[in-house]
Design goal:
six-stranded antiparallel sheet; globular; alpha+beta; DUF4252; DUF4252 domain-containing protein
Length: about 180
């Protein structure tokens, strides 16, 4: 019995990693000045009055939620931009995040990452930064997604009765 307790304790300690993660980063910044965080569930895609194909249904079933973090750079936090973007880049350099697409240069850039393998993606991450205005992280979280399903979700979002009031906090900070 004692061996089992020691084994369970060892597993619990090993699973509590102190390694930084994107989720931890977003949660820690959710109450910080200059940051806005939005968590949107799958209900953002209202498909009540939209005819869905089998592929549409599969895409919806693979989607769980969307996390958005925005850091708006201003005169009060100019130095913070470099520190915070370096922290995000360090997290995204972890082997779990595989780079899919990269765009831009030093002043403007966008990179799309994924977690999982090409046919069973659990997370897509878009990191976009502009030196003058700040950066944003968008996490599309799901289960066994593929790139076509994410594109289909974007299309469904456009067709659905999306409530843009859910994005009001982002609009307010970006003004």
């Amino acid at each position: 019995m004692k061996k089992y307790i020691v084994l369970i304790a060892a597993i619990l300690i090993a699973s509590c990693s102190s390694k930084p993660s994107l989720q931890k980063y977003i949660v820690e910044r959710s109450e910080s000045p200059g940051f806005v965080v939005l968590d949107l569930g799958s209900s953002i895609i209202n498909t009540d009055k939209v005819a869905l194909s089998v592929a549409d249904k599969e895409a919806l079933e693979s989607f769980e939620k969307l996390n958005v973090l925005v850091f708006k750079k201003d005169t009060l936090n100019e130095n913070k931009f470099d520190d915070e973007s370096a922290k995000v880049k360090t997290i995204l350099n972890d082997e779990a995040y595989q780079e899919l697409i990269k765009y831009g240069g030093a002043d403007k850039s966008a990179i799309v990452y994924f977690v999982g393998n090409e046919n069973a993606i659990d997370e897509f991450v878009l990191y976009a930064a502009q030196r003058e205005t700040g950066f944003a992280i968008v996490r599309v979280i799901g289960d066994n997604m593929n790139p076509n399903q994410v594109l289909r979700l974007v299309s469904l979002l456009q067709k659905s009765k999306f409530d843009f009031e859910q994005l009001k906090p982002l609009q307010d900070i970006l003004k």
